[in-house]
Specification:
Layout: H1 2-33, H2 45-48, H3 60-71, H4 76-103, H5 106-118, H6 120-123, H7 132-152, H8 155-171, H9 177-192, H10 197-206, H11 208-225, H12 234-245, H13 254-266, H14 273-281, H15 287-302, H16 306-319, H17 341-346, H18 354-374, H19 379-399, H20 404-407, H21 411-436
Helix pairs in contact: 1-5, 3-4, 4-5, 4-7, 4-21, 5-21, 7-8, 7-19, 8-9, 8-10, 8-11, 9-10, 9-19, 11-15, 12-15, 12-16, 13-14, 18-19, 18-21, 19-21
């Protein structure tokens, strides 16, 4: 009895942690059992048949696939997917560490960690031959190291934070925003927080390799495909945005506009490759000339029409608010007759919508202001979470034009961790009111 009184808190926490791990492992393993490993999509071929001269993808993920192919003479891709699954599971542990670092509430952190660990919109990417699973893992690592550094301002945490920023763009093109966000936060810390000035300088120095990688990527893309960008797809994506918003009609060459209109109408006003490929062929036959001339076309269409361009992006953000992050951007589990009972049970957790990120962002920025007023030391955390979601939303909607469940998937770790931080503050207010009463 004495042992229980002295150790009951530790025993309960250990028991609940073990139960949480068991639940996540049990449901995830059953989910994977009904999946084909690996699952292929049209984009998968750009990783397995990687050609750096096309400048479509960064080299990290193809290098990982090649590593497993060299290590295993048979089923190398299957082993690489197993690696994705293991890393995805380990990232769940870092979600807990991050939540607890922010909230100091063990059971709230554990509940939200289980929720994240069982989300089919997270689990489903682990078996796809795509970078989305690694994107989620790297995003969790980025948030975890950022929170640790912004809490402690220690030398080691700063180096780990900068290292996470280097790994991110090596694996996923869109994650080049992480080093930029880290640099901005470091500058703000350097200017406004004397506690972290020394380590802020260290972080900025350690970010240099990230920016050198981004610079060299842009230079290589310019050399091989004619456009200075992190991906050769940038002119095509902007063309799709111009087609969707009808801003392509602003180009002074009306004969060219008429030809584009004919192609666009012939494909039922779809902005997929069936439309963009023939449009790009109007400019040139090889990719480098296509991108060079298309970039000039895009700039001419946007000149003097920035307001309409921004309005179209905002309208798209409004229209996609109700889209739910579900099991797969191809076939949701609830519509699949071959899905197991476990998969269908987990599909009920598909409750996160893109629009919730807007609400959570506003909540984080509101608490950022409160934290500044109260001087509780959490303002950098709130700014990081809210600013991170804004950065992702703006960069994705301005740079892509479809497949929102897929391209915005790395919002999910930000959303779950932000939810935990906000709920913790609400509980703190409740505890204060109860104490006063």
């Amino acid at each position: 009895m004495t042992f229980w009184k002295k150790n009951h808190s530790w025993i309960l926490k250990t028991a609940t942690a073990c139960f949480a791990v068991f639940i996540i492992v049990y449901f995830r393993s059953h989910y994977y059992q009904n999946c084909t490993i690996p699952q292929w999509t049209p984009d998968s071929w750009s990783y397995t048949s990687y050609d750096y001269r096309l400048c479509l993808r960064p080299p990290g993920y193809p290098a990982l696939l090649d590593l497993f192919d060299s290590l295993y003479s048979v089923n190398g891709l299957v082993h690489s997917m197993n690696c994705q699954i293991v890393l995805s599971f380990l990232s769940v542990f870092f979600v807990f560490l991050t939540l607890y670092q922010i909230t100091k509430r063990y059971y709230l952190s554990l509940i939200l960690t289980v929720f994240y660990g069982l989300l089919p919109s997270v689990i489903c990417w682990d078996t796809f031959l795509l970078t989305e699973s690694m994107t989620l893992t790297l995003t969790v690592l980025f948030i975890c190291t950022a929170v640790r550094w912004l809490t402690s301002f220690s030398f080691i945490d700063g180096i780990l934070f900068a290292s996470a920023c280097l790994l991110a763009p090596i694996y996923k093109t869109s994650l080049f925003v992480y080093p930029i966000a880290a640099l901005l936060v470091s500058i703000l810390v350097l200017i406004f927080d004397k506690r972290g000035r020394i380590t802020a300088v260290i972080v900025m120095i350690c970010l240099i390799p990230s920016f050198l990688f981004i610079r060299d990527t842009c230079r290589m893309t310019k050399e091989y495909t004619g456009v200075y960008a992190v991906s050769s797809l940038e002119p095509r994506h902007k063309l799709a945005l111009l087609l969707r918003s009808n801003l392509y009609k602003n180009h002074p060459d009306k004969e060219l506009v008429e030809k584009i209109e004919t192609i666009y109408e012939g494909n039922n006003y779809s902005v997929n490759y069936d439309t963009t490929d023939p449009v790009m062929e109007l400019f040139a036959k090889n990719l480098k000339d296509q991108n060079t001339k298309l970039s000039a076309f895009n700039e001419a269409c946007l000149q003097g029409h920035a307001k309409e361009y921004i309005e179209d992006i905002l309208d798209t953000m409004r229209k996609t608010m109700k889209i739910t992050f579900d099991d797969s951007y191809m076939t949701p589990v609830e519509d699949d007759p071959s899905a197991t009972v476990v998969q269908k049970m987990l599909s009920h957790l598909n409750i996160l919508k893109i629009g919730y990120a807007y609400l959570l962002t506003m909540g984080c920025l509101m608490y950022f202001l409160f934290s500044l007023i109260n001087k509780d030391g959490k303002h950098w955390i709130w700014l990081g979470l809210g600013g991170g979601m804004i950065t992702i939303l703006v960069s994705v909607y301005a740079g892509t034009y479809m497949e929102w469940i897929r391209v915005l998937v790395y919002l999910i770790p930000f959303m779950v961790i932000s939810l935990g931080a906000i709920l913790s503050e609400i509980l703190n207010h409740y505890d204060l009111l109860r104490a006063l009463s």
